[in-house]
Amino acid sequence: MDKLDLHFHSNYSDGKLPVSEIAAIIKSEKLKFCALVDHDSVAGVRELETCLNGSGTKVITGVELTARYNENEIHILAYDFNIDVAAEILKERKELVGLQKIEEMKKAIQLFRGEGFEITDGLVPSEKQPVGLTVALDVCASRFNQDLFTKRHAKLIIPEEVYYEYQAPGKSCAVERSDVTAEWLVKKFKRVARDLIIAHPFVSVSVVTKPLNEKDISNLVRIGLTGVEVYHNETSDEQISLVKRIVRERGLHYTGGSDSHGKKGDTPIGQYGSNRTIPDFYLSNYNSNIELN
Questions:
Q1: pLDDT value at position 127?
Q2: Which GO molecular-function terms appear in the entry (predicted)?
């Protein structure tokens, strides 16, 4: 059986390892197919292609896209596209989200100060984390805020508590999270990428988001996504069976990957669980020639 991994990350996004080290692992594991899917970045894809040139491993261009879906955040895996065109779309996305974050930050600061919390003067959004987390970390760093939170809630404050008590939908400091919508990404990438895959549908992408359900999968397929990630290190066997059924019934494409970030304890590249290799995948232009059981 051919070895593969269509979902791993490098230090071009939130991974630990440089592309050269990842390429060395791929060569050692003798993967036939691979895809580097850094978060909202294609900066490392050509480097991986160069590192693996002549190795016998096919590099499928990939990226993991962040999007807003209703009040939730989801990740979409785009595959098989022109890197330069994708880079232009990602540049446009970055500019739009950057402007949104400035407005989100203003609203969040106003609401938290209205609740009596101290917020650092001149606090600005971070490109690499949500505005809500930036604000929550700032709130937690203040002794004044810790004392205020203890008086109100009888415990010390951590970012998760800031979210659940103040930032969650319906709470007093809730602000719509900055991001482009899933519809925006589908519209932009549909003409560029051969496949748009729902990443790890039953795995929350952070502590402030919810896993998707079967209805969500149906809605996302309706707006233009072509498939679902079946094999993932945090997806249970029961959930994998459910996704396989959805794939069969709807004739969807499917993928799998380690979601490795190169950190201690991560699932190794080429696996989706302890000693479990990714058995198969199917994309528009590529497949492992094994039928989904």
A1: 87
A2: 5'-3' DNA exonuclease activity; 5'-3' RNA exonuclease activity
Dihedral of alpha carbons 166, 121, 180, 34, sign: negative
Residue 59: closest CA among 117, 5, 104: 5
CATH 3.40.50.1000 fits 3-81+193-277, yes or no: no
Write phi, then psi, for 280 (nearest 5 degrees): -165, 170
Neighbours of 236 (CB within 10 A): 12
What DSSP element (H or E) covers 62? strand 62-69
Structure letter (DSSP) for residue 39: B
Structure tokens at 293: 């059981």
The secondary structure element, H or E, covering residue 196 is strand 195-198
Q: Where in the chain is the domain with CATH 3.20.20.140?
A: 3-81+193-277
In sequence order, the β-bridge partners of residue 62 are 79
**Predicted local confidence at residue 291, as pLDDT:** 46
What is the distance, to the nearest Å, from the Cα of residue 35 to the centroid of all Cα atoms in its chain? Answer: 14
CA distance 20 to 187: 33
Name the helix (H) or strand (E) containing 277.
Answer: strand 276-277
Q: Report the SS3 class of residue 165.
A: helix
